């Protein structure tokens, strides 16, 4: 992508300064031997983005900026994806990507919009009293949501690529790590809801009149920031970790269309596939405490008390730009569960929950979800003696974004390890790398 001009000197924005401070803190807490860290960083700098497998059919699903919210949900559901780039319908066909795309609409953002809209204007949600089995418009959206559990396809690393790079030999190819979630936790497939969706959701004036464009800025998790196919894996990993990008679009230089996405989950899935390689196994076998994990320690963990209002918990997620919180009880913060933004869909699916949402406690909300699923919502945890390999395998196999570190018989939450932290564990930022390769990215981030 575009490189910065050396003469351009800009004062860092508070956001960039916060990213720098976070990454410096992470690096100061890491305990990976210096030479090994340098070798890993060098290895990832030699893996090209172009080696990633493309999306099925070679075409990324896009959503027009003037698409109504209801239709946007339908597109995401039908294609089993959680996010999609938003296309500017006013842009010329041969326009540059910066004019062609306005951002990325994330399913979590839509859920938050629905929740806040209905929370501020109860009359908007009057449809909850009628409709599909009494669920109404909110219920239909929630039911469609249950069929959306993961992107259609994402790419990851093969062990051979990094191993051979670390060894100083020719680079191997990068393979695909598919992360498909076609309604695996859904009692009702999206296809079966098409008729109900069309007859109820699309007839609701509020959902027909509100466009993706109108919510894009308020609920944007991160700026739209593509990289070129000639970029390195190191640059992508820095964007996913240091700069908190959830996914990085890939664009071929000179071409206006998006070719692929690289996600945090994809990278961790790729690392999990490196099992059996000596360089990976020697790191993965170490207890997380020997590596400096968790980088986010006890007093930095944002949590929800089991007796807090559930609405307050969701607002904490939005304010802190996190996707989930541990649920704790007592002065020792014993972990008893977890709530995530995606859980909002359960409240939208069940009118008895939604009608009393503002008065619902975290405990009651978790109980209702457990009853709906037919099993308890057990938090995913590890302890300081758990290996990094166990953490990576757990994150990958359970398709979750965080694992909580607990201590003692009381299972006190003393830290959290996210996908972002795992990625940060394997890389550092070489001197001047930001100016040489990420100058464009930093400028874009400063604008948001």
Q: What key phrases describe this protein's structure?
A:
448 residues, CBS-domain, 4-stranded mixed beta sheet
Give an overview of the whole structure.
InterPro entries: AMPK_gamma/SDS23_families, CBS_dom, CBS_dom_sf. Keywords: CBS domain, Repeat. This is SNF1-related protein kinase regulatory subunit gamma-1-like. It comes from Prunus yedoensis var. nudiflora. This protein has one domain: Roll (CBS-domain). The chain has 448 residues and is an alpha/beta fold. Helix 2 crosses helix 7 and helix 12 crosses helix 18. Strands 7-13-12-11 form a four-stranded mixed β-sheet. The N terminus is likely disordered. It is built from 21 helices and 13 strands.
Number of E-type strands: 13
Mean pLDDT across residues: 74
Helix/sheet category: alpha/beta
Provide the number of structural domains: 1
The end-to-end span amounts to 19 Å
Rg over alpha carbons = 22 Å
Summary?
By secondary structure, the protein is an alpha/beta fold. It is built from 21 helices and 13 strands.
List the helices and strands and how they pair.
Elements: H1 14-29, H2 34-45, E1 63-64, H3 69-78, E2 83-87, H4 97-100, E3 101-106, H5 107-120, H6 136-145, H7 159-166, H8 194-200, H9 205-209, H10 212-216, E4 227-228, H11 233-241, E5 247-251, E6 258-263, H12 264-272, H13 278-284, E7 296-297, E8 304-305, H14 310-320, E9 324-329, E10 334-340, H15 344-349, H16 351-354, H17 362-373, E11 381-382, H18 388-397, E12 402-407, E13 412-418, H19 419-426, H20 433-437, H21 439-446
Helix pairs in contact: 2-7, 11-19, 12-18, 12-19
């Amino acid at each position: 992508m575009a490189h910065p001009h050396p003469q351009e000197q800009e004062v860092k924005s508070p956001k960039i300064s916060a990213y720098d401070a976070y990454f410096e803190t992470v690096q100061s807490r890491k305990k990976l031997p210096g030479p090994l860290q340098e070798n890993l960083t060098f290895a990832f700098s030699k893996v090209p983005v172009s080696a990633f497998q493309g999306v099925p059919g070679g075409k990324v699903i896009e959503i027009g900026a003037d698409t109504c919210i209801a239709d946007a949900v339908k597109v995401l559901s039908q294609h089993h994806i959680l996010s999609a780039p938003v296309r500017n319908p006013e842009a010329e066909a041969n326009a540059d990507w910066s004019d062609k795309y306005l951002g990325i609409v994330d399913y979590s953002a839509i859920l938050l919009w629905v929740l806040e809209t209905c929370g501020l204007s109860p009359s908007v949600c009057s449809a909850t009293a009628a409709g599909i089995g009494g669920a109404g418009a909110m219920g239909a959206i929630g039911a469609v949501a249950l069929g959306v559990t993961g992107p259609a396809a994402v790419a990851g690393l093969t062990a051979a690529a990094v191993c051979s790079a670390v060894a100083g030999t020719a680079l191997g190819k990068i393979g695909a790590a598919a992360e498909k979630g076609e309604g695996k936790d859904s009692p009702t497939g999206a296809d079966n809801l098409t008729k109900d969706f069309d007859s109820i959701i699309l007839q609701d004036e509020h959902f027909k009149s509100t466009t993706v464009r109108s919510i894009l800025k308020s609920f944007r998790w991160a700026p739209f920031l593509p990289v070129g196919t000639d970029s390195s894996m190191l640059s992508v990993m820095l964007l996913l970790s240091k700069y908190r990008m959830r996914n990085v679009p890939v664009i071929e230089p000179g071409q206006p269309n998006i070719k692929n996405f690289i996600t945090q989950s994809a990278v961790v899935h790729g690392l999990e596939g490196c099992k059996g390689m000596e360089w990976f196994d020697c790191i993965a076998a170490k207890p997380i405490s020997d590596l400096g994990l968790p980088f986010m320690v006890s007093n930095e963990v944002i949590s929800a008390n089991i007796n807090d209002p559930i609405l307050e918990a969701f607002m904490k997620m939005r304010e802190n730009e996190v996707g989930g919180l541990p649920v704790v009880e007592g002065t020792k913060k014993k972990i008893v569960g977890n709530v995530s933004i995606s859980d909002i869909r359960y409240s939208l699916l069940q009118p008895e929950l939604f009608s009393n949402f503002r008065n619902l406690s975290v405990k009651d909300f978790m109980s209702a979800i457990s009853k709906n699923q037919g099993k308890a919502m057990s938090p995913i945890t590890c302890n300081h003696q758990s290996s990094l390999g166990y953490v990576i395998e757990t994150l990958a196999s359970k398709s979750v974004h965080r694992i909580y570190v607990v201590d003692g018989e009381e299972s006190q939450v003393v830290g959290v390890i996210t996908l972002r932290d795992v990625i940060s564990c394997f890389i550092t930022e070489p001197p001047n790398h930001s100016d040489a390769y990420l100058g464009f990215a930093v400028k874009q981030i400063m604008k948001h």
